Amino acid sequence: MSKVYSDGELILTIQSYQEKERVFLVQRFIPWRDYRIVVLDDEVISAYERMPLSVMGDGVSSVRELLNIKQEQFSVYGRDTYIRIDDARISQCLERKEKNLESVVPSGETWQLLDNANLSTGGDARDATESIHPMYTEFAVKLTRDMGLRYCGVDIFVNGDLAAPSDEYVIIEINAAPGIDNYASIGPYQQKRVELMYRKIVEALAK
Question: FRET label pair with 82: which of 67, 98, 124, 164, CA 20 to 30 Å apart?
Answer without folding.
Answer: 98
